[in-house]
Design brief:
Layout: E1 4-10, E2 13-19, E3 25-30, H1 41-45, E4 51-56, H2 73-84, E5 91-95, H3 97-107, E6 115-119, H4 127-137, H5 140-150, E7 155-156, H6 158-170, H7 183-192, E8 194-197, E9 200-203, H8 207-213, E10 236-243, H9 250-258, E11 263-271, H10 274-277, H11 279-295
Parallel strand pairs: 3-4, 3-5, 5-6, 6-10, 10-11
Antiparallel strand pairs: 1-2, 2-4, 7-9, 8-9
Helix pairs in contact: 2-3, 6-7
Length: about 300
């Protein structure tokens, strides 16, 4: 399964993405920080017989040349993408940071999805704790960690890029994020994370992109704190990885789910990188939402 590279207009330019084909209900797939549209390829292969999955490269990621100048742009783009695709009430699926992106776009009224599927990407802190956490991401120490762990912003020539991709594939089985992922998928996601800039390949995102997105202020319209879920009325499924980022906070996730009807919590045996390590199981969860959307009476937005 190859898919077609596409460009999707947003307010100040275009985002890159992959249209995996298929027919029927639209399913927008939104990756997490450091990943890109290719991360969804194996999930999409299980979806195309029943719907039309499209994945995007968020600002500063993959092949999208747009960068963020403020902390909300990356999720505000989702409304423009849905409009460009001419979709009515799609299913929005977001992993990690992408989970908050689809949540915020819905809470901000930019899109009215048939359902949300949030994959190990929740916000559980109150506002003060969230502000402190975002400030911590913008420190010099945090930037150095990102450069060391993921080479964010690294400039490579052709030979260095090739060697790095081979290294990532070779070490994937021992890597905390890629262990269990198909080697060919690790290769594709890694390659797509580099954007050609003159004679160099630049690893996306840069640490500056991460810092910009983390520059949250108290007065933003949609604040990344647990009360954001009070603004949601559509059905919502939270997929919680048993060894993921939020495993120790399952009771708090359960409280978010129990706070409103139409919400569901699904536990999955995986570490954080669910789309790449458990694609078939995740696709089955998404297809349940697609089938519910298809079965819903016309005009029923909830």
């Amino acid at each position: 399964m190859i898919g077609t590279d596409i460009e999707l207009p947003v307010g100040d330019g275009v985002l890159s993405g992959v249209d995996f084909g298929g027919h029927g209900e639209g399913v927008l797939l939104v990756h997490g920080s450091g990943h890109n549209a290719a991360a969804w390829r194996d999930v999409a292969s299980h979806l195309v017989n029943e719907c039309r999955p499209v994945a995007i490269d968020l600002r500063g990621h993959g092949q999208s040349r747009l960068g963020s100048t403020g902390p909300e742009q990356y999720w505000r783009d989702i409304g423009g993408v849905v409009t460009a695709l001419a979709w009515d009430r799609p299913v929005l699926v977001g992993h990690s940071t992408g989970g908050y992106a689809v949540t915020a776009a819905t809470a901000g009224g930019l899109v009215a999805p048939a359902a949300l599927c949030i994959v190990d990407g929740v916000v559980l802190d109150d506002r003060d704790t969230s502000l402190a956490g975002h400030a911590g991401v913008r420190t010099t120490e945090a930037a150095d960690r990102l450069r060391t762990m993921f080479r964010y912003g690294w400039k490579a020539d052709d030979d260095q890029l090739h060697a790095y991709v081979e290294q990532c594939v070779r070490e994937a089985g021992e890597d905390w994020l890629n262990a269990g992922a198909r080697p060919g998928l690790v290769e594709e996601v890694t390659r797509r994370s580099f954007l050609r800039c003159g004679r160099w390949w630049v690893r996306r995102p840069t640490v500056e992109e991460i810092a910009t997105v983390a520059a949250v202020e108290p007065g933003v319209e949609v604040f990344p704190a647990v009360d954001v879920y009070d603004r949601l009325t559509c059905p919502m499924t939270i997929v919680l990885a048993e060894d993921g980022f939020y495993a120790s906070r399952r009771d708090e996730v359960r409280a978010v789910v129990d706070a409103a009807p139409g919400r569901r919590l699904v536990d999955i045996s995986s570490h954080h990188n669910v789309p790449m390590t458990r694609p078939a199981d995740l696709a089955a969860i998404i297809l349940d939402l697609v089938r519910d959307r298809a079965a819903a009476p016309a005009g029923n937005a909830d």
